[in-house]
Specification:
By secondary structure, this protein is an alpha/beta fold. The protein is built from 37 helices and 42 strands. A seven-stranded mixed sheet has the order 11-10-7-15-19-16-22, with helices on both faces. Helix 23 runs antiparallel to helix 26, helix 24 packs antiparallel against helix 32 and helix 31 packs antiparallel against helix 32.
Length: 1259
């Protein structure tokens, strides 16, 4: 119930007797007023402009307005209803800034007190038109949320039909509210659940011992439910967040002093019932015998030692996790105990879904309560007294995260950024991937422009597709939050102790294990949703290393695998080769609980470091040393548990039922065949035919299965062996060579060193040979996958078409046995039962040579008829030569070919010498043998060259990353040039330097250089390249540097410092690529015809003496005098500043030569910019500080304290590099405007090494 004024004046405070200003009403505690009522318009002549002015005054005072509009009878009959409403609204819309404080009341003047009543259809039609006009004039978001009431003679008879209309949101009741029948209108609208039911909840919570903050918080959430307020966030209310600051681009110095004011808080209220646990989820073992709590405690202990401070740590436990947690943490005494270590989350009553009454369950009253979500963090801190206690002890900031997120540790850099930003609340967000699309995301409120969080429970079904659009909504909440505790306390004061967090309804049964029990609603809030409550709240994009939560056994399996690693500060982070993307694990529903998952991995989890997605369907167990790569699906469509054998599974689908099903069919068939009585000949014959038929079926099924499972892998490997143009050199290396660089040679990547040249020649050769061996291995497996289907055809061909009774039975049996041996060799490899290593592949390949040799012996012609023998010999030679060339092409192994082909040649000479002359046989075979060996050598050389080229490509990628890391934060950007000095890509830094939006890709870089400096640039590139080639990797220093000018737009010359590193050509060619890093000299942006302004180094400015440096005054005086005599011409002010306007000298007349101790210069034009004196990495902080001081001075605000800058450094006239350690900042007025005066003291020579120490100018 609120009291509402009927009118408000349009004037401010003053001599306006009888008028009430908006400020008067607010002072009296009145929060609402009517404006523009029809009687005010008709009787007192208020115009649309008058009403608009009143609305503006109410908006300024924060007073809620019920804005009345409506047409007269003659306007209604003239068809001008919509025109009048638009005119009256249109005058007020520009004055309204906050639509949450405005309600529109449509009151048809012709229906007030006249006896004429608008029908529900007429009222709906008009109010629908009003909402449409609002959408057009103020936006769809405003039109959707603003309340439009109806005020045309509402009575108990018509209110029921009126309230059914979708665009009538309430009533403005006049004279009828003074009659007893007004209660009939109220009853028609429905009784208030807050009035009828809330006392029951309040009594129940007080009886349970809940504190006032908990009761106030639940009163708010239940009030939202009882009001029927729509808690959904449709697309029409949201905009995507386009960009946010990122952790990687933060350029600031961490301030460890802030740790004394900071609390680390972990949420530890979850039982993990979704994973089959009956205790705190944080007690679940994660890795190396450590639970979540163990790792959290060790993280805190490590941070205390690292930062050398007593870091404050606390837990928010629930009533179900408190005891277990405190018991587990007894061994970590440094963390604290009791209320210094924990406060307990509140609990909330469950709501009966049917009538919204408190849930009642006689069997177990504990089921009547539920946790209110982690949004209860705030009222729990307030109600337990923790918030006031922390503020009293001087704690100002809080970092809060979930206990199951071991990547969320105190980061001093983020803390400093949060404090410097001045934001009261900051959320850490990460970029969404397909694995995150079903979770909540960050968005922007269309109405207010502020950030908000939308959870999946707040998304309407119609918007689910957009909700999961990761390219539109790019960021999700990691639940790592930073909160200003003082701002939180003020927010509680503003909202009377209950933060207005969005409320989410979860439908459950009162007993979770009894689905037939009473249906209830659990009301929950999310702590991240508070981002919309704090004005000025912000967000920061963090790397995935700070987000490693465990919500399901899918997450737990991935976290325990080798895709993650435990850091020295006890964080679990993704390995670098995962590039920030975790493996996507989808386990069968039977593994929902942890005990079932443990049975699946008795020997530890499989390797997932190279896994993109793993899907497990059915009951299986992993053997030891199982490696998953790419996308793998493992099924068990049969009964019982099947083991996944050791080995590597890459981009495949494996059904472990197949091999056991085949064995079972064979056993069953054998039993049926040999258990029948031998007396029945017909039965024996029938069983034999059945046995053969089953054998044929099994044989065909086996080969169909092999074709299905191996075809995808085979064609993928054939595609990879082809010369594929991959996106990056490292991808080309992995695709063509077929081995993981990171797995086998961890020192070869991510170290920033030359990939091949950094190693010894012997090691480089070993890498190349390893790559070649890997190609041979995959080539052999591909051949085995193909020939396993071709070999069974040879016995049939031999028996039916070639033998024709020539060979006796023993010879036929030997041939069939050899074919069977070759078939089994191919079968075990193709079916994945045996994955040979590189050495075993060579032996198996040599075995094929032996098989081929034996076939030549077995198929040699008999010495019967000369003509027939000669014809058979020529045919065998023809097929033998083709087969031998094929073996050389497949294996690409010269060492193997020398021995194997020599053996075949000897057998051919022996078998053919009985038909042809021996000399002819030897000569022919020598030609064939030499040709095959030459072909094998050429193929091996090409393979070696390709592997070498790909290793060079990886070297180029490694050097590129190393160079960029070294110059990060020092230079403005980098430019990649090919061997012809043409620009690769379209570097943004170059566009910025040249002030151009043109596409630079493919352009000649020489054309961008000033014409008089092209020759110098060519010499610089040649010198740098030759130096890099001649120096060993160990002798290589920082890249050489050159100062040159680029030709920008508007005839500008832009001077830059350019650093150069030659890179190996990614295509393997001899001519190198060139990587240039550039740093702009900001003072150089002037037209070529402009007057030269001297560098700041020639300004003869001496520091003013202070008492702290007075002991050095005599020394300074003598040095100043000496310097003055030596370089008077060089430091002449008139020579260096032709537009000098004023000079003030402070002279010490007590010195023999009257030394000048202070010089103040004033020039008609700027001498130089402060940007030249500042370090590049400090400039942004200095700029913000000075601009803030100027703004405060202009607004007449008092300074909160003396301003200071860390340091300024420059070169003196003598060329020495000086650094002013103390720089005081003061605002002053000069020439009628505010300026900033900097006082530089405590000068000394710069002793620290430059970030670019060792960079030298090219000759």
């Amino acid at each position: 119930m609120k009291v509402c004024a009927q009118n408000c004046g349009k004037n401010d405070a003053g001599a306006f007797t009888g008028e009430w200003t908006a400020a008067n009403l607010v002072d009296l505690g009145i929060s609402w007023t009517l404006l523009g009522h029809s009687e005010r318009r008709s009787l007192y002549g208020e115009t649309d402009a008058d009403v608009a002015e009143k609305v503006a005054k109410c908006q300024e005072a924060g007073l809620n307005v019920i804005l009345c509009i409506g047409e007269k009878l003659e306007e209604r009959e003239g068809g001008k209803t919509d025109e009048v409403n638009k005119r009256q609204l249109g005058a007020c819309i520009p004055k309204i800034k906050d639509w949450d404080k405005v309600v529109i009341a449509y009151e048809p003047v012709w229906a007030i007190g006249t006896g004429k009543v608008a029908s529900p259809e007429q009222a709906e039609e008009t109010q629908k038109a009003i909402r449409a006009y609002l959408s057009e004039a103020a936006g769809a978001a405003v039109a959707e949320k603003v309340r439009i009431q109806y005020g045309g003679s509402v009575n108990p008879e018509n209110c029921a039909e009126l309230m059914k209309q979708p665009n009538i949101d309430g009533f403005l009741v006049g004279g009828a509210s003074l009659k007893p029948t007004f209660m009939d209108i109220v009853k028609t609208a429905g009784p208030s659940k807050m009035v009828d039911v809330w006392p029951l909840y309040e009594a129940k919570m007080e009886k349970e011992g809940c504190n006032k903050a908990a009761i106030d918080a639940f009163k708010y959430t239940f009030g939202v439910l009882a009001s029927g307020k729509d808690v959904m966030l449709p697309e029409t209310k949201l905009d995507p967040v386009e960009s946010l600051p990122t952790f990687e681009k933060l350029r600031l110095k961490p301030d460890s002093r802030l740790l004394k004011k900071t609390l680390i808080l972990k949420l530890n209220g979850g039982l993990g019932t979704g994973m089959g646990l009956e205790k705190a989820k944080s007690l679940l073992e994660v890795t190396q015998g450590n639970t979540f709590l163990d790792l959290i405690a060790k993280q805190v202990e490590w941070m205390k030692k690292e930062f050398k401070t007593d870091l404050k740590f606390m837990l928010m436990n629930s009533f179900a996790t408190s005891a277990d947690t405190l018991e587990a943490l007894k061994k970590y005494t440094e963390l604290g105990t009791g209320s210094d270590l924990e406060f307990v989350q509140n609990k909330a009553p469950k709501v009966t879904a049917s009538d919204l009454s408190p849930a009642d369950w006689e069997k177990d009253h504990s089921h009547e309560w539920c946790p209110p979500g982690h949004g209860d963090l705030y009222p729990a801190m307030l109600g337990s007294g923790t918030l006031d206690k922390l503020l009293k002890k001087g704690y100002r900031y809080m970092f809060v995260s979930n206990s199951d997120n071991l990547g969320a540790t105190m980061d001093l850099k983020i803390l400093t950024h949060f404090v410097n930003s001045g934001a009261p609340f900051m959320m850490e967000v990460a970029e969404r991937t397909d694995a995150d699309k079903k979770g909540g995301h960050l968005a922007q409120d269309k109405a207010s422009g502020g950030l908000l969080l939308r959870e999946s429970a707040q998304c309407p079904d119609a918007d689910e597709k957009e909700f999961q659009n990761t390219s539109k909504y790019q960021f999700f909440n990691t639940n790592n939050l930073w909160v200003d505790l003082s701002a939180l306390k003020n927010l509680f004061r503003k909202f009377d102790g209950a933060l207005p967090l969005p409320v989410m309804k979860n439908s459950k049964t009162v007993d979770p294990r009894d689905k037939s029990s009473t249906k209830v609603l659990q009301l929950e809030t999310a702590m991240g949703a508070a981002i919309q409550c704090f004005p000025g709240a912000s967000a920061l994009v963090i790397p995935r290393s700070r987000f490693a939560p465990v919500k399901t056994t899918n997450d737990l399996l991935a976290l325990r695998s080798d895709a993650y690693t435990l850091t020295e500060d006890f964080r679990i982070v993704l390995k670098d080769e995962r590039e920030g993307v975790p493996p996507d694990v989808k386990l069968d529903g039977m593994y929902k609980f942890t005990d079932a998952m443990e049975k699946m991995i008795p020997n530890g989890p499989p390797s997932l470091v190279a896994c993109k997605k793993l899907v497990v369907e059915g009951e299986i167990s992993f053997a030891k040393d199982v490696v998953i790569k790419g996308t793998v699906t493992i099924k068990n469509t049969g009964g019982g548990c099947k083991e996944v054998p050791s080995g590597t599974y890459e981009d495949t689908v494996k059904d472990r039922r197949q091999e056991t099903a085949v064995a079972a069919d064979l056993a069953q068939t054998s039993y049926r065949s040999f258990s029948q009585p031998s007396s029945a000949r017909f039965g024996r014959r029938r069983d034999t035919m059945n046995f053969l038929a089953v054998g044929v079926v099994i044989f065909i099924s086996l080969h169909v299965t092999l074709l299905r499972d191996s075809s995808r892998w085979t064609f993928e490997q054939l595609r990879q062996l082809a010369p594929v143009a991959a996106a990056t050199p490292e991808q080309r290396l992995r695709k063509a060579v077929g081995f993981q660089l990171v797995d086998k040679y961890p020192n070869a990547t991510a170290s920033g060193r030359n990939f091949v040249k950094a190693a010894s020649p012997t090691e480089s050769i070993r890498w190349i040979r390893a790559g070649m061996s890997d190609v041979r291995k995959k080539s052999y497996i591909i051949c085995a996958s193909i020939f396993v289907h071709l070999v069974p055809l040879h016995p049939v061909q031999f028996i039916l078409f070639e033998n024709n009774g020539k060979d006796d039975a023993p010879k036929v049996a030997i041939k069939v046995a050899m074919l069977a041996g070759m078939y089994l060799q191919h079968l075990v490899v193709a079916a994945g039962f045996f994955r040979p290593n590189h050495r075993q592949v060579r032996w198996l390949s040599f075995g094929i040579y032996l098989y081929f040799t034996c076939f030549l012996v077995m198929t040699s012609p008999n010495l019967l008829d000369g003509k027939e023998v000669l014809q058979d010999a020529l045919t065998n030679v023809k097929y033998a030569v083709i087969s031998r060339f094929f073996l050389a092409i497949v294996f690409m192994d010269t060492e193997l070919a020398v021995g194997g082909q020599l053996l075949i040649s000897a057998v051919v000479v022996y078998t053919q010498s009985s038909v042809l002359p021996l000399a002819a046989c030897i000569f022919d075979e020598l030609n064939i043998y030499c040709s095959i060996i030459l072909l094998s050598m050429i193929l091996e050389f090409l393979l070696q060259s390709r592997v070498q080229a790909l290793l060079d490509s990886a070297e180029a990628e490694s050097m590129l990353s190393s160079f960029r890391r070294m110059l990060r934060g020092v230079c403005d950007g980098d430019i990649l040039l090919d061997s012809n000095l043409q620009i690769q890509g379209s570097p943004e830094c170059l566009k910025h330097l040249l002030m151009s939006t043109a596409d630079m890709s493919g352009k000649d870089f020489n054309r961008l250089i000033a014409s008089d400096e092209e020759e110098s640039f060519q010499r610089f590139i040649a010198f740098s390249t030759s130096t890099a080639k001649n120096n060993s990797q160990a002798d290589r220093h920082a890249p050489p540097c050159l100062r040159l000018s680029l030709r920008g737009s508007m005839d500008m010359r832009v001077a830059v410092d350019m650093f150069h590193v030659p890179l190996p050509n990614p295509s393997g060619a001899e001519e190198p690529y060139h990587l240039l890093a550039v740093r702009e000299d900001a003072e150089s942006r002037a037209p070529q015809t402009a007057r030269h302004i001297p560098a700041p180094g020639v300004v003869p400015v001496l520091p003013r003496q202070t008492p702290s440096t007075g002991s050095r005054s005599s020394k300074s005086s003598s040095s100043s005098s000496s310097h003055s005599s030596k370089s008077s011409a060089k430091s002449c002010a008139w020579q260096n500043f032709p537009e000098l306007a004023e000079m003030t000298l402070m002279v010490n007349v007590r010195t023999p030569q009257h030394n000048v101790e202070q010089v103040t210069l004033s020039c008609a034009s700027p001498m130089f910019s402060l940007r030249k004196l500042a370090q590049p990495t400090d400039w942004e902080t200095i700029r913000k500080l000075l601009e803030s001081r100027a703004d405060q001075a202009e607004n007449g605000l008092q300074e909160s304290g003396p301003g200071s800058i860390k340091k300024l450094q420059f070169r003196s006239p003598s060329g020495e590099k000086l650094c002013a350690r103390d720089v005081e900042v003061e605002a002053c007025r000069a020439h009628g405007a505010w300026r900033i005066r900097l006082r530089l003291t405590n000068f000394e020579k710069e002793r620290h090494r430059s970030p670019m120490q060792g960079i030298h100018e090219a000759p």
